[in-house]
Design brief:
Blueprint: H1 4-15, E1 23-26, E2 32-35, E3 41-45, E4 48-52, E5 58-63, E6 72-74, E7 81-85, E8 90-94, E9 100-105, E10 114-121, E11 124-129, E12 134-139, E13 144-148, H2 152-156, E14 164-167, E15 171-176, E16 180-185, E17 190-194, E18 201-205, E19 208-213, E20 216-221, E21 226-227, E22 232-233, E23 239-243, E24 246-251, E25 254-259
Antiparallel strand pairs: 1-25, 2-3, 3-4, 4-5, 6-7, 7-8, 8-9, 10-11, 11-12, 12-13, 14-15, 15-16, 16-17, 18-19, 19-20, 20-21, 20-22, 23-24, 24-25
Length: 262
């Protein structure tokens, strides 16, 4: 039994062994960020978008003050970035040099109160419309609706206000703090609810959901329903994302990069 306490301590230390970042990049005055597959960094501050290289050097800048603040950004396709302007109910796409390509008015598609947008592949995005309380899959090329979910309130049997929407090619993830993270298939049918309540922020990588709760980032395999062994106790987290076995964490004056175990 005398080895039990040291063994437990070693296990705890192993769980917290990745709290020191592999790399730190000085980035100031950002509200939100994301990473593309080439490790380029995209930082947002109000209506301003900046593209940085992997070392934090500014490459390109974009701003359209007439549209107001940028609510969210997707860099799933680095050649076709997707910006969402919630106040204007508009989706704008940019090329890799941050030149405007196209603009889609969501009201013209019949969506009057879109709150959340997430890109699932090159030609499709998912949106949450508060007026109808549904998820919609939009075809960007045709500017039309291709699929939709049932009414969210009816599905979860309680009044709700989703706070975050993420999607992959196969699944859609909707965070409802009082209920958990709802997972839908590509047609908009509800598959399961992951009982993670009051999550501050989350991201999806493969079959794992990484989530921030009570100043700690954890992960769960949503198909096997098993918790990851790594923990990242962090403070002052503005947002984070996961890309290529790296956890990118935005703080007020820097971007920290951590390794992720298999």
């Amino acid at each position: 039994m005398r080895w039990a306490v040291p063994f437990i301590l070693l296990m705890l230390l192993a769980s917290f062994s990745d709290t020191r970042p592999e790399k730190e990049i000085k980035l100031k005055n950002l509200d939100y960020f994301t990473i593309d597959q080439f490790s380029n960094i995209y930082g947002i501050r109000f209506d301003q978008l900046r593209k940085y290289d992997s070392n934090g050097k500014i490459i390109f800048e974009y701003s359209n003050p007439l549209l107001g603040s940028i609510h969210s950004l997707s860099a799933l396709d680095p050649l076709n970035l997707l910006l969402f302007y919630k106040d204007q109910a508009q989706i704008t796409t940019l090329d890799n040099r941050l030149n405007e390509s196209t603009a889609i008015q969501l009201i013209d598609i019949g969506l009057n109160d879109v709150q959340l947008v997430s890109q699932s592949d090159e030609n499709f995005v998912w949106v949450y419309d508060q007026a109808t309380d549904r998820l919609y899959r939009l075809d960007l090329n045709r500017a039309s609706i291709s699929n939709k979910s049932l009414n969210i309130t009816q599905l979860v049997q309680l009044e709700n206000q989703p706070t975050q929407l993420e999607s992959t090619y196969d699944n859609v993830f909707l965070n409802i703090p009082e209920k958990g993270i709802l997972i839908f298939d590509a047609t908009g049918s509800l598959l399961q609810t992951v009982a993670l309540k009051h999550v501050d922020y989350f991201d999806v990588w493969g079959e794992r959901i990484f989530y921030l709760k009570q100043d700690t980032v954890r992960s769960i395999d949503f198909k096997k329903n098993t918790m990851g062994k790594q923990l990242w106790p962090l403070e002052e987290v503005l947002s984070f994302t996961v890309e290529a076995r790296k956890l990118y964490v935005l703080k007020p004056k820097k971007l920290n990069i951590y390794g992720i175990n298999p």
